[in-house]
Amino acid sequence: MQYSKKQEEKNFNLLKELIATPSPSGFEQLIQSLIKEKIVKYVDDVKVDITGNLIGMRKGKGKLKIALMSHCDETGLMITYISKEGFLYFKPIGGMDEHITQGQRVFIHSKNGPILGVIGSRTADLLSQEERKYVTPFKRQWIDIGADGREGAAKKVSVGDPVTFAYELQRLGDSDIIVSRGLDDKFGVLVLIETLRKISELGEHEVDLYMVSTVQEEIGLRGAVPAAYQINPKAAIIVDIGWTTDTPETLLEKAALGDTTIGKGPILDKGSNNHPILYQMMLDVAKENDIPVQLRASPMPIGTDAKVVQLAREGVATVVVNMPARYSHTPSAVASLKDVEYTSELLSKTIYKINQLIDFTPSI
Predict the structure, then answer these.
(1) Predicted local distance difference test score (pLDDT) of residue 252
(2) Angle 333-340-329 (CA atoms, 0-180°, nearest 5)?
């Protein structure tokens, strides 16, 4: 396959819009509105269900239902208490390490718009040698918005307001390597939008294709459950972020974690969460179209939407397509835009290979 630098720039600009739109789990309305705007020209019908999932459907010649899914929510924080001094205390939304938050700038997304703050920390000179050994728990961290007491803070923010890190999408130099918060999983959403664009250019296909932007994945795969139930697809491809072993702390763990890197194509896991027939079909498509992919062993299901979609109703043939990324669930995840092109090419070509005659029941 050929790689387009022109399309890379378009993908960068679209991802920048997605990243700039906050979407902590439970607060996805803004991002879903943006995604709807981007896909409406590629689908025949689009709706939002009661959970908040965005579902776009593109009709095919047959009756077989196939779902392409990615979650739009991101990890974040939530304000839980305002002290009499005007400092804001918080809890995490989704999985986050306590040692990465102190000193970070954040936006509190209030009814008054985004409010800039900083997560405070004690000056290093005041820490004892014993205190330096430990990570400060979330319950002892606070956000400083420069407020004059509780009353002043309460005029700007409220208990329950969501918080995101104050980071935008940037390139590392002039390369295809990007850095941002929220790549998990707005990177996957970008892939789905780009896949729809390619499918619209390829023309009529056999299957009824459902593009699903799910909610609340980071707090328990919650949106994918009702989405899969109502669509009832025969097969589903779930796009999410996958870890890599191309950084110093993971180079020695390849025997356990696999050999994966950014910019070398999507990661396909072989294991219980990936259906053998659909998995082999995607490998064949990659080989036929010279699309780079990376293989990894996954003996147990990983915590993505595929874990619950696979078990919907009578069962769904699922495959997880992992977008390689470093430093996930931090304010500065790193990935390659090349993997957007590789993955969207793989997904679009796979959709065109699926037809009514395919039986996803494993042979015995």
Answers:
(1) 67
(2) 20
Q: What percent of the chain has pLDDT over 70?
A: 98
Contacts of 252 (CB under 8 A, 6+ apart): none
Handedness of CA 321, 324, 329, 331 (dihedral sign): negative
CA distance 66 to 318: 10
CATH 3.40.630.10 fits 5-74+181-353, yes or no: yes
Euclidean distance between CA atoms 21 and 108, whole angstroms: 13
> Which pTM does this prediction carry?
0.95
Check residue 125 and give its pLDDT. Answer: 67
Q: What is the pLDDT of residues 69-114, one digit of tens each?
A: 999 999 999 999 999 999 999 999 999 989 899 999 999 999 989 9
Residue-level pLDDT at 129: 78
Catalytic residues: 217
Segment holding 334, helix H or strand E: strand 333-336
Q: Which residue has the higher pLDDT, 358 or 233?
A: 233
Please report the DSSP string for 44-87 in residue order. Answer: SEEEE-TT--EEEEE--SS--EEEEEEE--B-EEEEEEE-TTS-
Could you report the per-residue pLDDT of 126-153, keeping only the tens digit for each? 677 777 778 889 999 999 999 999 999 9
Domains 5-74+181-353 and 76-165 in one fold = no
Report which of 212, 243, 184, 191 is spatially closest to residue 308, judged by C-alpha positions. 212
Token reading at 18: 């997605």
Is-contact 55 46, C-beta < 8 A?
yes
Q: How far apart are the C-alpha atoms of 211 and 197, rounded to whole Å?
A: 12
| Residue 302 pLDDT exceeds 80 | yes
Domain 76-165 CATH (choose: 3.10.150.10, 2.40.30.40, 3.40.50.720, 3.40.50.300) = 2.40.30.40
